[in-house]
Amino acid sequence: MTRLMRIEKWCLWGHVLSMAFGLAGLLWVMPHPEILDYLPAGSTLYRWSMAGGGVVYILLGTVAVALYLRRAFGWQAWLSFMIPALVISLSSELSGTSTGFPFGDYSYLNGLGYKISGLVPFTIPLSWFYVGVSAYLLARGGLLGERGTWVRQLAAIATGALLLMSWDFVLDPAMSQTAMPFWYWHQPGAFFGMPYENFAGWFVTGAIFMSVAALFWHRNERLQGLNREQLTVPLVMYLANFSFAMFMSVGGGIYIPIFLGIAVGAAPAIACWWFAPQSATPDADSAAQLSQMPVMEMVSTPAGVSK
C-alpha cells in the first residue's frame, strides 16, 4: 500500500469517525452536559467539536474522495468532476443565499467555516463535490455497463442527481431545525420547513455538473463498466453521510423525510452497487496482471564462456 493510499484510507475513516463524534456531541452531550464531568478533558473536546468539527469532517471527506478518484481513474477524471462541481455548486449557493434562487430564501449560520463573500461557508461546495461524485459513480456503475448508450447516460445523470437530492431530504430538516442549526429558512416551506423549490434546485444543480463530468468522462476507459470493488468507496461515503443526516433527523424527531430518503436515496444507491459487476472482466484482470509482472532481461552468453 502506497503512502497516498494510506492517507486516503485514514481520511475516509477519519471522516466517518468524526461524523460519529459530532453526532455524539449534538445528540448525547448537548442535551446532557453533565456527562462532560465524567470525561477526561470533556469540556475542551466538546468546545472543539462544536467550533470546528463540521469543518474537519468535510475536509477529511474531500481529501479521501479526491485521492480515491486520482488513484482509481486518474487526475483528469478527478479534476474534470471536482472543478465543475465546486464552481457550479458555489454559484448556485451564492445565488440562493443572495437572491433566493434556485433553493429558496435562506442564510448560513456559523459552524461550517469561513464564508465566501460573507454568504456561503467554503466547506459547502466541498460537500457537494464528494457526495455528488459518490452518487454519480454509483449511478454509472448500476446503469451504464461497459459502454452506455446516450439514453443510459441520461439515466445515470438523472439517477445521480436524484441520489444527491435524496441526501438533502434527510439532511436539510436536521441541519436547519434541530437544537444547533447550521442554516435557517427566512420563509419556511411546506415540507418540514423546506420549500419544494429547494429540491428542484438540488436536482438541477447536481444534474448540471454531472452532465459536464459525463462529457469529460465519455472517452475514459477506466470509467466504463465500473465494478463493485471500484464503487465501494463511493458507497461508504454516500451511506455514511446519509446516516449522519438520518441520525440528526431522528434526534430532532423528524421521521418522514428519513423514509423518503431511504426509498429514493439509500436503497437505490445500494441497488446500483449491487447491479454493478462483482469484479473486472477476466480479460481485463489478465491484462492488469501481465502489466504488473516484472520484465525479465535475457542476457545471452557466448558458448564456452562462463560468467
Written overview of the protein:
Strands 1-4 form a two-stranded antiparallel sheet. It has a two-stranded antiparallel sheet with strand order 2-3. It contains 9 helices and 4 strands; from the N terminus they run αααβββααβαααα. It is mainly alpha-helical and 307 residues long. Strand 2 and strand 3 form a beta hairpin. It has helices at residues 3-29, 42-73, 75-99, 123-143, 150-177, 197-217, 228-251, 256-275, 282-292; strands spanning 106-108, 115-116, 120-121, 183-185. Helix 2 (42-73) packs across helix 4 and helix 4 (123-143) crosses helix 7 (228-251). 68% of the residues lie in helices and 3% in strands. The chain is globular. Mean pLDDT is 85; it is low at 282-307.
Distance between the termini: 38 Å
User: What structural category do the secondary elements indicate?
Assistant: mainly alpha
Tell me roughly what share of residues is in helical segments. Answer: 55-70%
Q: What do the pLDDT scores average to?
A: 85
Largest sheet entry: 2 strands, antiparallel
Number of strands: 4
Instruction: Report strand order across the widest sheet.
Output: 1-4
Mass-distribution shape: globular
Number of helices: 9
Rg of Cα set:
22 Å
User: What proportion of the residues form beta strands (DSSP E)?
Assistant: under 5%
Order of helices and strands: HHHEEEHHEHHHH
- Stretches with pLDDT under 50, minimum 5 residues: 282-307
